[in-house]
Design brief:
224 residues; alpha/beta; Rossmann fold; 8-stranded mixed beta sheet; 3-stranded antiparallel beta sheet; 30% helix
Length: 224
């Protein structure tokens, strides 16, 4: 499938799929969306509850933007992170070098860590930094079988318009099972069908203000 690199409204880059008319990140701002949805309402939300270490699962590792920002935030807040990124169709090295996240985040001193995230092998845990471990898994989301393993899930799959099968009760049951008690899942989507699918498998779901370009987003909690 053809992939084009585009610049989003906040100046940060993303990948756009013309065949689906679907970008990897919001056209209204890739970095803004990552911070608002996954960091503010996910990572920071748990940090405020005194989590000193965290296991995070990302559904759609993609360009590595969410992982890179999480790495920087975990260093700033002194939180140990065990990060697992699942991706069925890894982004090519040629496209990764076109991503301008290091520059836009003014993180030139951390550039080597962004590069390392993409250079390390798949299916193995790698110590990216003293406080941050990364495992990349090349598989379909439907193949996830983890049980009570993660505190936080970044659900960053392609939208339900183009891949409705990723937003079903079947997938959210896997997400629910993968979370530890009181674990949370955050996603940019706020569709009613998505919220109902989450609730059907046992999640407690709340609507939150969305990132630029979206009115709302969802945060789901595994309450036992």
């Amino acid at each position: 499938m053809e992939r084009n690199v585009i610049i989003t409204a906040d100046g940060s880059s993303t990948i756009y799929l013309p065949e689906w008319d679907e970008p990897y990140h919001s056209k209204h701002g890739a970095i803004q969306e990552a911070y608002h949805v996954f960091i503010k309402h996910g990572f920071h939300f748990l940090c405020e509850q005194s989590y000193n270490d965290m296991a995070i699962l990302e559904i759609g590792f993609g360009t590595g933007l969410n992982a890179f920002i999480t790495y920087m935030e975990s260093e700033k807040l002194q939180v140990s992170v065990d990060y697992c990124g699942v991706e069925a169709y890894p982004v090519s090295a040629e496209d990764i070098v076109k991503m301008n996240y290091v520059t836009e985040l003014k993180a030139e001193k951390k550039a080597s860590f962004f590069e390392k995230m993409h250079q390390v092998s798949w299916e193995k845990s790698h110590k990216i930094a003293s406080h941050f471990s990364l495992t990349k898994q090349n598989k379909f989301f439907s193949d996830i079988e983890d049980q009570n393993k993660f505190n936080l899930i970044y659900f960053d799959a392609f939208g339900a318009r183009v891949q409705p099968e990723l937003w079903t009760e079947t997938i959210f049951q896997k997400m629910y099972d993968a979370l530890k008690p009181n674990g949370i899942l955050v996603t940019y989507s706020a569709k009613g069908s998505v919220r109902r699918a989450m609730q059907a498998v046992g999640f407690s779901v709340e609507k939150l203000p969305g990132p630029p370009g979206k009115r709302e987003m969802l945060r789901a909690t595994k309450k036992l």
